[in-house]
Amino acid sequence: MAGQHRQGIREHLGQFSLHVLLVFATGLTIGSERTVVPVLGEEVLGVESFLVIGSFVVSFGFVKALLNLYAGKWGEEYGRKPVLVLGWLTALPIPIILIYAPSWSWITVGNVLLGSTRR
Asked: For residue 109, which of 28, 27, 100 has the smallest C-alpha distance?
């Protein structure tokens, strides 16, 4: 059986479980941001413009789309794991940025970082 790859969830349960956890955590972050961040912008940071509040969604989407164009190429060139790990490391400061954000620009920076993570 040398050279043959074993397939299926059971054979890769650890990897599969990690992926499920990461997708869940990313979805939870994005979902809570869509609910909490607009209220934070209006009530805490005093942002009144709907367009400014929407900027965090646009920044996320733009960065996500742009980096998705390159992720496959980088995965082939440097390996999938290093690209994924770099994305996860990029996400580490996001909660701190959002918790201590003194202005709306910090929220936008947090979403740019969130857009740069791979899922």
From this structure: 100
